[in-house]
Give the backbone structure.
Amino acid sequence: MSEAQKEGGKYSLAQFPTVLEAIVPIYKLPGNPELRFSGEVLADIYLGNIKNWKDSRIAKLNPGVTLPDLAIIVVHLSGVKGSNYILTDYLSKKSEEWKTKIGKSSSPKWPVGLETGRSEGMATLVSATPGAVGYVELSYAKRTDIGYGSVQNAAGQFVKPTTAGIMAACTANEKTMPADFRVSLADATGKESYPLVSFTWIYVPTSGLEPGRSQALKDFWAWALGDGQEIASRMGYTQLPPSIVSKAEQTLNSIK
């Protein structure tokens, strides 16, 4: 949140993370090859600058892969979505054209592409559309009827969204992370860091709620930061490192 968003409403808001989330590029191609993407190439695909899978810029990243002579069908999420923000945050760091024309936004003005409302719908639409490319949360990418790619990180390595790679992106930012967690984990430093990573966020009034309601919220989120972490990992998210959990609990305990 911006400072205006934190302080501009009826209640002052606190924010803290609950889990780590990865966004994954998915696609539907003959033979379901394993592909590599860079931020620059993903930006050019979503800007409409790269229109065919045989484009030399894709081929350069994927030596030895037979790419089809097939039009790229871009798919994106409509409305306000956290996945949009994570993707556009990363693309803004890797492409000056993207940063200038589109920027980072939870509801960007997409220059090209088909729309769908949710990650599940995007995975289904990509699966049904030869040549399609999209982006989803990791749990939706692990279907057998679509491919999902590795993405080039700040160290120049092509990394898949493993638990270790997602955790590495968080760890790389931890020393410089402000107390209010206002940080971007996209394109983190380090050879192992997966570059399309973010916290999921909870926004809670710092005071002013009815005491019983405030306590119930605090009890629930205390559970989510504790035992609930294991459940989140079974749903395709990555648990927070213990040091981040401790800081999030401090923020939660400050709520009155």
User: Anything to note?
Assistant: The first strand starts at residue 13 and ends at 27. The beta strands are 13-27, 36-37, 73-77, 114-116, 132-137, 147-148, 150-152, 158-159, 197-205.
